[in-house]
Amino acid sequence: MGKPTPSIQVFALRQPTVTFETGPWRPPVNLYETDRGVIVVVDLAGVNPQNLHLHVHPRQLAVHGERQLVAPAGIRRVHRMEIGAGPFQLEVAMPAPIDPDGAHARYADGLLEIGLPFAQQPPQRVVVIRIEGGER
């Protein structure tokens, strides 16, 4: 008979932690390619569309703005805090040159969807696009 394997018990006692970012937070993003262009979907639940700014470059998309979250009254302790608040910034490189003049955006149900058609000849300028939807 062999020696019995000792059992090991590990106890982790730790208090909940909250990390506060000092810089802009980055929202989650999906990037899809179609035959005609690129579709970018950004998760921006709770963001007022008037606080969104989009800059479309031939090779890059920049989205920035701010989300305001008000903490519920009477909080005694924070156990978990994962929803980003305050200023955010997102820069997404395009897989191919896009046409900023044909870009369009729509905000609905907390998602910002941006359509970016491929460029026949890449323009050399930046275009700021207007976001549709999101009426409150």
What characteristics describe this protein?
mainly beta; Immunoglobulin-like; 0% helix; 136 residues; five-stranded mixed sheet; four-stranded antiparallel sheet; 37% strand; extended
Short account of what is shown:
The protein is mostly beta strands. It is 0% helix and 37% strand.
Overall description:
The chain has a 5-stranded mixed beta sheet with strand order 1-2-7-6-9, with no helix packed on it. It has a 4-stranded antiparallel beta sheet with strand order 5-4-3-8, with no helix packed on it. The chain has a domain at 29-69 and 83-133: Immunoglobulin-like (Sandwich), CATH 2.60.40. With 136 residues, it is mainly β. 0% of the residues lie in helices and 37% in strands. The mean pLDDT is 85.
**Helix-strand category:** mainly beta
Report the portion of residues in β strands. 35-45%
Mean pLDDT: 85
Write out the strand line-up for the largest beta sheet, numbering strands in chain order: 1-2-7-6-9
Q: What is the terminal-to-terminal distance?
A: 74 Å
The helix-strand sequence is EEEEEEEEE
Question: Which helices and strands, and how do they pair?
Answer:
Elements lengths: L28 E5 L3 E7 L8 E5 L3 E8 L18 E8 L10 E5 L2 E7 L9 E2 L2 E3 L3
Parallel strand pairs: 6-9
Antiparallel strand pairs: 1-2, 2-7, 3-4, 3-8, 4-5, 6-7
